[in-house]
Amino acid sequence: MANSPTGDSATDRLVRILDTFTPTRTVQTATEIGRRSGLPSSTAHRIVTELVEAGLLERDEDRRVRIGMRLWELATRSSHALRLRQAAMPFMERVQSRVREHTQLAILEQDEALFLERLSSPDSGANITRVAGRLPLHASSSGLVLLAFGDVDLQERVLSSPLAPLTRATLSDPAAVRRKLAEVRAIGHAIAPGYIEEVSTGIAVPVRDETSRVVAALSVVLPRDAETDFAVVELHRAAQDIARSLGFRH
Ligand code: PHB
């Protein structure tokens, strides 16, 4: 695509505009988008207008801008995330109805855990995961599963970058994370008591596809001191059923 005087392509500029939207910043003025994207204001305004015309962004009555339904539609159609979510849903519902706590499905995306789905009931406790939100790999049960069963390059990249301590319990020392990953591989699941927020314990198991490759993590979030055994059993059973529904035969 055509390059601007500053050398970035039309695609770069588009991505910079879309990247100003985050899980907690879903509505912005065109001026805010311009400032946050780092693009010249007139360029940002023009691209926002074009994206609104194409339906990829939408404006509300106050002319504030959000991600458009057309973009949601195109993205949700996407290939493997949708297939995985559809295969997982019935078994996530079973986990949620039996464990009666938050149940979520995450995949590895750009060195973070990206959440595809979350089921909760009104009386479930604290939980910071959001659908289409991300958590750090070293500090969440899902992340630890994805890291433990991920490739060595991923592990080395994550372990050699700063491991932010989010609570007093977060493992922020690379050696401690390495030991935890070995434990996760040995016992087949991750338990993360208070790693990301003091009041909760995350428990996650790997989800394998038809080739036996780990493609996701299935997790529940319990109150910090809750009994974990029942949830672990239910999660393993669900992960096996999901793999079977994706075509895994054994
Ligand atoms: C976890 O997966 O470890 C986790 C996720 C969200 C929370 C707490 C724990 O709120």
From TrEMBL:
Family annotation (InterPro entries): GAF-like_dom_sf, HTH_MetabolicPath_Reg, Tscrpt_reg_IclR_C, Tscrpt_reg_IclR_N, WH-like_DNA-bd_sf, WH_DNA-bd_sf
A Pfam family annotated for this UniProt entry: HTH_IclR
MF term (GO), any: DNA binding
Keyword Transcription regulation: yes
Keyword entries, A-Z: DNA-binding, Transcription, Transcription regulation
Gene3D superfamilies: 3.30.450.40, Winged helix-like DNA-binding domain superfamily/Winged helix DNA-binding domain
Domain HTH iclR-type: 8-69
One Gene Ontology biological process: negative regulation of DNA-templated transcription
Residues in IclR-ED domain copies: 70-248
Domain of life: Bacteria
Protein name: Transcriptional regulator, IclR family
Species of origin: Herbiconiux ginsengi
